[in-house]
Write a structure and sequence with these properties.
Elements lengths: L4 E4 L3 H12 L4 E5 L10 E4 L2 E4 L5 E2 L3 H6 L7 E3 L3 E6 L2 E6 L5 H6 L8 H16 L2 H5 L6 H7 L4 H16 L8 H13 L2 E4 L4 H9 L6 E3 L3 E5 L2 E4 L4 E3 L2 E4 L3 H8 L6 E11 L9 E4 L6 E6 H4 L9 E8 L7 H16 L7 E13 L7 E3 L2 E3 L9 H18 L1
Parallel strand pairs: 1-2, 1-14, 2-10, 7-16, 14-21
Antiparallel strand pairs: 3-4, 5-9, 6-9, 7-8, 11-12, 12-13, 15-18, 15-19, 16-17, 17-18, 20-21
Helix pairs in contact: 1-9, 1-13, 6-8
Length: 406
C-alpha cells in the first residue's frame, strides 16, 4: 500500500497537518477544492481594499498559534486591548487597566454597569490568569453566561459588554458556549494581542502553505468520495493513500464520510468604504444596546493602513445569526441606519464594497473525534475548540497520530 498521506482541505488544519507530516519525511498531497488555500481564512483585493473573508483576528497568545506561526514575519498590527461600547447614544471606552492604566481609569465610571463591575472584571481577570491549563481546557459543564452571573457581574454589564464582545468571538450573543473555552479565550486576550497581519488574515494561511514543497498543494481539486484507501476526485482521477486526513468544514466532512457533519454558525460581514474613519484608534466597537443588526464593528484601516490603497477608511460591520434573503442593499441600509445613531450623518457617505455571507463560519460544537479508523483521521476546529488555536491543534494532533502509527 502507498505510504502517501492525502490531506483533504487546505485550511489552517490541513496546512498544519501537511506541513508537519512533510517535515517528518512523509510523502504528502494536500487537495483543496477552491482556487487558493486558506479555507475560511482568506483575504482578497476589492476596489483598492484588502478585505478578509469576514471579520477575523489572530490571538497571539493562543499556544498553537505561537507554535505554528512565525508571528514576526506576519508583521502583525494590533487592536487596542479593550472596546468602545455604544449604548443610548453614548460611547464608553473599556480597556485592560494593566495594559492601558491611564485610559482604563477613565472608563471606571458610568455605563455599562458600574464601578463594582470594573472591580469584578479585575478579579475575574486575575483568577483566570492563575487557572491551570487543565481547568481552561476541560469543559466546565456550565455556560459562560452562568459563569459571569456566578461572578456577580450585573445584568447590564453582561448584556451590554460581554454579550456583544464574546458574541463577536463565539458568534452567539446568548453566551451559551462552555465557560472553560470562553475563559481560555479571555486569558489569551489578556496575555496577548488581538491582531491582523499587515497583508490581511490570508497571510496566515499563505505562510503555512509556503512551507510545503512545490507540487504538494493542489488547488481546484474537489474530492467526490473516499473509498477505503482511495480518494476520488471530481476530475475522475483517483489517488491511493496510506493515510487520509479529512480537514474540511464540518458539513463537507460529513458528506465525504457519509455521516452527519458538525452544525455551523453563520455570520454576515459588510465592508464599507468611508471618506474618513468614524472614530480614532484601533478599537473594536460593540453594540451595547442590542438594537439594530450590527453586533460589532471595526475600522480596519485604523488597525493597519495597508487595508486601503488610498485615503479611504475600510469599515467592517458584523451581523450575527442565520443568513436571510435580504438584499445586500437592504442590509447596508439597515446597518447605516444603526450606525447613524453611533456616528451621525457621516455614515450616509459610506459606500458598500462587499458583503460576505458565511454559512459555515464556526462549528456549533466541537464533538467530532479526530481518529476515525486506521488510516483515516479528521481535523478541523469542529474536532477541537472553534478557533484558529483549535484548527491548528487538530492538524498537529492528526499529524502526530499518523507518525505514531508508523
Amino acid at each position: 500500500m502507498s505510504k502517501r498521506v492525502i490531506v483533504i482541505g487546505a485550511g489552517l488544519a490541513g496546512l498544519r497537518a501537511g506541513g508537519l507530516l512533510q517535515a517528518a519525511g512523509r510523502d504528502v498531497v494536500v487537495l483543496e477544492a477552491a482556487e487558493a488555500p486558506g479555507g475560511r481564512v482568506r483575504t482578497e483585493r476589492v476596489d483598492g481594499f484588502q478585505i478578509d473573508r469576514g471579520f477575523q483576528v489572530l490571538l497571539t497568545a493562543y499556544p498553537e498559534v505561537r507554535a505554528a506561526l512565525d508571528l514576526r514575519a506576519l508583521d502583525l498590527k494590533s487592536f487596542a486591548p479593550g472596546a468602545l461600547v455604544f449604548k443610548d447614544g453614548k460611547s464608553t471606552t473599556l480597556c485592560d487597566p494593566w495594559r492601558m492604566p491611564l485610559r482604563g481609569a477613565g472608563g471606571l465610571f458610568g455605563p455599562p454597569g458600574g464601578l463594582a463591575d470594573r472591580f469584578r472584571l479585575a478579579t475575574f481577570r486575575s483568577r483566570i490568569s492563575l487557572a491551570s491549563e487543565v481547568e481552561l481546557t476541560t469543559p466546565a459543564g456550565v455556560t459562560f453566561a452562568e459563569a459571569l452571573r456566578a461572578h456577580r457581574f450585573s445584568k447590564d454589564f453582561i448584556d451590554s459588554f460581554f454579550r456583544p464582545w464574546f458574541g463577536g468571538i463565539t458568534l452567539d450573543r446568548s453566551l451559551s458556549a462552555d465557560a472553560a473555552f470562553c475563559k481560555f479565550v479571555f486569558r489569551c486576550l489578556a496575555h496577548g494581542d488581538a491582531a491582523v497581519p499587515a497583508l490581511g488574515m490570508g497571510a496566515v494561511a499563505d505562510q503555512l502553505a509556503s512551507r510545503l514543497r512545490p507540487g504538494t498543494l493542489r488547488t481546484g481539486c474537489r474530492v467526490t468520495a473516499i473509498e477505503g484507501a482511495v480518494v476520488r476526485l471530481q476530475s475522475g482521477e483517483t489517488l491511493e493513500s496510506g493515510a487520509i486526513v479529512v480537514a474540511t468544514e464540518g458539513p463537507e466532512a460529513g458528506r465525504l464520510l457519509r455521516r452527519p457533519g458538525a452544525g455551523s454558525k453563520s455570520v454576515t460581514c459588510l465592508s464599507f468604504a468611508a471618506p474618513k474613519p468614524p472614530y480614532a484608534g484601533p478599537w473594536l466597537a460593540l453594540n451595547g444596546a442590542n438594537l439594530g443588526p450590527v453586533n460589532n464593528l471595526a475600522v480596519m484601516t485604523n488597525v493597519s493602513a495597508t487595508y486601503s490603497s488610498d485615503s479611504r477608511a475600510l469599515v467592517s460591520a458584523t451581523i450575527l445569526g442565520p443568513i436571510g434573503n435580504e438584499s445586500d442593499a437592504h442590509l447596508a441600509d439597515q446597518s447605516r441606519a444603526q450606525m447613524r445613531g453611533w456616528f451621525g450623518a457621516e455614515v450616509d457617505a459610506w459606500t458598500l464594497v462587499r458583503v460576505d455571507r458565511i454559512h459555515h463560519a464556526q462549528p456549533l460544537a466541537a464533538t467530532a473525534p479526530g481518529f476515525l479508523r486506521a488510516g483515516l483521521y479528521l481535523a478541523g476546529d469542529h474536532t477541537q475548540q472553534p478557533s484558529a488555536h483549535g484548527a491548528l491543534r487538530s492538524g498537529r494532533v492528526a499529524a502526530e497520530a499518523i507518525l505514531a502509527a508508523g
